[in-house]
Specification:
It is a single chain. Helix content is 29%, strand content 26%. The chain is built from 7 helices and 9 strands; from the N terminus they run ααββαβαβααββαβββ. The chain has a 7-stranded mixed sheet. The chain has a two-stranded antiparallel ribbon with strand order 1-2. A hairpin with a 5-residue loop joins strand 8 and strand 9. Helix 2 packs across helix 4. The N and C termini lie far apart (34 Å). Bound molecules: S-adenosyl-L-homocysteine (SAH).
Length: 223
């Protein structure tokens, strides 16, 4: 695959992209701007994770598409969204396209250098998302106090694996909101869980699929 359009067509024909809003967001965010500059452009459109530096990776396009599909009913115009472990910034940008001018995506990432890099990536692809405040990318550890007082969020995407479901994130979910998060052994496979908070504040979980993500680290952890 040589273009973002071809990658999107492949994800559609394999049934990963199902809805027009997800298709549009993925068409409008070109993966070549989010992979490490040293990687030949042709690799950008492979459906696999790629290095972005600091031992981290940009997720595979089918995982980005899967998470957008799972969250899409909550990624509506004006929604408040949290992207945990925003890494390359790809998903934050795609969600920014979906929530529109009146929405807000906060991306949080523990490596300051990756935050700088992700801001530079968005500058190349979608400067208006940064300039008009639809996407904000910041440094911090989500399991610390970096987001104190920032709840609630209508949608939360977690791009790193938690050993158990973090209460601090469940608390940040708005009534009626949804979180997708990989939970399980951090050095093995995990289960992607869908966490729905109903209007009464009750939390409902269901398991979706086995996945493999890098660990969601505690503040002060060396990795
Ligand atoms: N969705 C991103 C995935 C990046 S990999 C993308 O496709 O580009 C997951 C990211 O989570 C890593 O960059 C890692 O540094 C970050 N991370 C891990 N634990 C974290 C924590 N507790 N708080 C914030 N970021 C964290």
């Amino acid at each position: 695959m040589r273009t973002q359009g071809q990658l999107v067509e492949r994800l559609k024909s394999s049934g990963v992209i199902k809805h027009a809003d997800v298709e549009r967001a993925m068409r409008e965010c070109d993966r070549k701007h989010y992979v490490d500059g040293g990687i030949p452009a042709a690799y950008a459109y492979q459906d696999s994770p790629l290095p972005i530096g600091y031992h981290e990776t940009i997720s595979a396009p089918h995982m980005h598409a899967t998470c957008l599909e799972l969250l899409r009913e909550h990624l509506t115009e004006g929604a408040r969204v949290l992207d945990v472990g925003s890494g390359s910034g790809y998903l934050a940008a795609a969600m920014g396209v979906m929530v529109g001018d009146t929405g807000k995506v906060v991306g949080i990432e523990k490596h300051p250098e990756l935050v700088e890099q992700s801001i530079a990536n968005l500058r190349k692809d979608h400067p208006e998302l940064l300039d008009d405040g639809m996407v904000e990318l910041r440094t911090g550890n989500v399991l610390g106090d970096a987001l104190d007082g920032e709840e609630p969020f209508d949608a939360i995407h977690v791009g790193a694996a938690a050993s158990t479901l973090p209460d601090v994130l469940v608390k940040k979910l708005a009534p009626g909101g949804r979180m997708v998060i990989p939970v399980g052994s951090q050095w093995d496979y995990q289960v992607m869980q869908c966490i729905d908070k109903d209007e009464g504040g009750q939390v409902h979980k269901h398991d979706l699929m086995y996945v493999r993500y890098v660990p969601l680290t505690e503040p002060g952890e060396a990795w």
